[in-house]
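Lab channel / #folding
Pinned by the channel admin:
"Please post every new chain as: sequence first, then the structure tokens as a reply. Keep commentary short and put observations after the output so the thread stays searchable."

First post following the new format, from NK:
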Amino acid sequence: MKVSDVMTRKVELADPGQSISAVAKQMADSNAGFIPVGENDRLVGMITDRDIAVRAVAAGKGPDTPVREVMSQEVNFCYEDEPLGKVAKNMAEIKVRRLPVMDRGKRLVGVITLGDIAQADKRAAGVAISGTTAPGGPHS
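Reply from TO:
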């Protein structure tokens, strides 16, 4: 089974200049805990509800703070044609619950989450969950 068989294809995007309050509303409206950030047809970051809480609110930044100031710029991703088991193992190793999915031209084509994996392959989900539930390091 490949990532493209189970990934979510409909993806909300944020702009790095958007305010964190606008992105938080976007997350609430789409029931998502993260949104990829794109600029000029390229993925430039990710913003999570945790980024907003830790890097913005806890740091005293206001609701008009641009996404670029609090987003995660280092973005891990996978390719749509990769085997699901390999991606689940990678997610465990890097301790993430979701990944953007790219085509081989490095264009965003979807996202894959632990939920997507769990619905498709219980064994792969167990692998991914085993790593992502282990305590992580500091929020960078």
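NK: The mean pLDDT is 88.
TO: also worth noting, The chain has one domain: 3-132.
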